[in-house]
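tool=predict chain=A
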Amino acid sequence: MRSEKILFYGYLILISVEYVIAQFVSNESIKDVSTIYNYSEKPISIGKLNRKYRDILYEGDMAISYKQLSIIVNGSTEYRKAAKPRQREKKENGSDRVKRQAYLDQNYPATIWKNGVPFMFHESLNPIAKAAILKAIHFWYRETCIEFRPRTFQKEYLLFIGNDEGCWSTVGRDASQGKQVVSIGDGCEHFGVTSHELAHALGIFHEQSRFDRDDSVSFNPRVVEKDLLFNFAKISPRQMSTYGLPYDIGSVMHYTPTEFSIIPSIPTLTAIDTNLQQTMGQLEGPSFIDVYIMNQHYQCQDKCQTQAPCQNGGFTNSRNCKVCKCPTGFGGPFCQLISLSFSPFCGGLLNAEETSRRFDITIRQSTNTRSKTCVYHIKAPEGKKIIVDILRIDSKCIEGCYQDGLELKMKKDYRPVGYRFCCPESSRRKLISETNLVPFMVYSREDDFSVSFEYSFVSATARFDEETKTQDVLIENSDGVFVSDSSSSLLQKLGFRRHL
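tool=predict ok
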């Protein structure tokens, strides 16, 4: 079996040759140094934990069957042949007629766990791993319509194993296997990893495998060993589709920027929108898009006779059809409100003006509450856009910015993870929104985090170099949050105490 998989991985390399050669001759195959950050720490890398299994695991952590691998290879070959005339048509007509479908294979919906997911734990699992797995099971139960139950007599079930077996999983329900193994070995006992591997077992592939990924990230094959290039092959729409949902660089199913890189400081994947580079590679847990895709994949919307009137990209909660699941930053029954912050002393609405206001916030890890998130919305008049000028970031620079950081949603689609910043190199960065509303989150889960920025609104034709004046006041509260903003109405509303 091992030799058969190696042979088929070789085929995957061959079908990617044309793409790889194009990357070699492209001047954009290696981005400028602005995408290379001085990381003080890198997150858990599933690929590194599975290093000794690289020749038998697909894309670093998927134990797919010979049949699945054959389908993927054939589908990728056919799709590449069919894509050439479409690419010519796109150039000639200025449009792309490739339709977005769903995360499915030829056997869908037989490859989902329609009658629930029986599971059991092998004795090799340590207590920490069991707790992390149960947390992932509870998450996917709570956020979807999928049912889980301990195995009794079922022939088809998930078997979670441990010890030094790496972090990997089968993909989707495979009736031919019966028992399907999910490995949560040493070093894998984290919610980000267990939720990722369980998502594979439920039928979800990696985000960067999407056939439309080149619109969002560029791949640099120069820093990947030739026999590992198959890990960056794209899967055709016949086996993997997108439900019409946008590419999410902040997905828990996305590679880290330097995955499989032979030069640790040079990324293999670079965001086309460089403001998203620090968003890539988080293993905090599933994103809103991850949850949305899983709900679509398991047809959870069919559980509700009527759909809730969700706003701002939310969707109906299949476990309570009267309310919605909301993108990060939004709350209320229909995603019409600002989501709650960890403390009443932070979060709320900031009204932008033509004159810049300065906003400063510091969240300290000095109280019993470990995970702290303050949620704000910056709002401008209709027809205006918002400028955010990041002045200073004081934080540990970590790939994926999943521990402490600032997340700004500058796009009109609020569903994907936004621009995340946690590295001092991100200071003196100016951003402009696509709409008159910018949700942003300031979060601290491990260490102190501090950020300062200015914000204002401009017309669509305004230039970044307009001079503005700022004013601010300093406020603090008992929850370890120090906030400064020039909006006195906001301070009065939240009951902050001023310090002169």
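The first strand starts at residue 117 and ends at 121. The chain has two domains: 2-279, 340-499.
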